Amino acid sequence: MKKNTLKLLAAAFIMSTTAVVFQSCSDNNDDEELIINPGTGTGIASDPSNFKGEIKSGENITLDATKLYKLTGSVIVRGGGTLTIPAGTRIEANGGTSAYIVVEQNAKIFANGTATNPVVFTSPNPTPGSWGGLVICGKAPINRGATATSEVGESIYGGTVANDNSGSLKFVRIEYAGAIFTGTKEFNGLSLFGVGNGTVIDNVSLVNGSDDGIEFFGGTVNVSNIVSIYNEDDAFDWTEGWNGTATNIYTKRRANGVGNRGIEADNNADNKDANPRSNPTIKNATFIGGTTGEADGLKLREGTYATIDNVVLSNWTTGINVEHDQSVAYFNGQNRITRVKFDNVTTPASVKATTGSATATLLPNTYTIDTNATGAGNGTASPTWAAGWAGIQ
């Protein structure tokens, strides 16, 4: 009996010590619940109704797909930290543009949904600009300097690591994000600052944002199966020396004509010959627009280069608009844009010199026409790969 009593006392002491350890590691007031239910989230995920704060170096925070997370402020994943968002997780932002997620250099995000169970970032207030969007900062090259500071979150981005890895986004829908503060500070649905090609971005949808759907600020990241629809500015935007590939892009303006270009493409507005020069490969893309406002399907300017193939341009005043001497010299007559189908496009293409007042002469072979071009896969109709998860109506 004495031995059994000692064993019971020892077990009780161990349990008490364990409880103290749990309490000392927790930043919340629900310690007893954490002990009783070990599956409950830790750190900034411990209170789904108030999801905000920092994930520090060495912290690995995994959300619970059975819970609804309310993004009430900023979430910053610091270098060395990891945020994992399982398939089916829903995050609702209700903090305006003070609510956003930033993944800093050397940090990672893994938001991996499925076609039937996507990860969804949205808002209970279904209005564009209801929150600030998702920002990823990597260490891949940019042409704004050796490094720079992001518009959102003021985090460092850029470097020399072309294969930098910031994690993965798969089957993710981002809704009602974005905002325009000034001409140089804007929130997009998904902002990729110097993101490297070790990062996976596949099957991502940007819906009903108040600025651009997706924007690349330099970097080398490759993307595929991108939907950018009903956004109030450009659907697909790059600058600062992006060198990656984009395969399967479907974009569409709102029915009321709100929204700007299908693509807005820059190298560097301050130095059109800055290196590394923006020079992505765009393949299999459909851009559906409107004939009011900024009605260019593709606006290629500020010294950008690109290789563009198998494109459907529908319902634009100008299909392809090339501006500034460096971009005009690269595209004009050089067969860089191939297999284009124009549908209800008033002017297929135009070229304009840097001065703006001088219009260059559009040369043959600036683009080639293919009336059978499929674009994102289904002509002007939404592609089958976007069915269900992407929010296309």
UniProtKB/TrEMBL annotation:
Residue segments, region Disordered: 261-281
Swiss-Prot/TrEMBL keywords: Signal
Keyword hit for Signal: yes
Domain of life from the UniProt record: Bacteria
Extent of the signal sequence: 1-23
UniProt name for this protein: Multidrug transporter
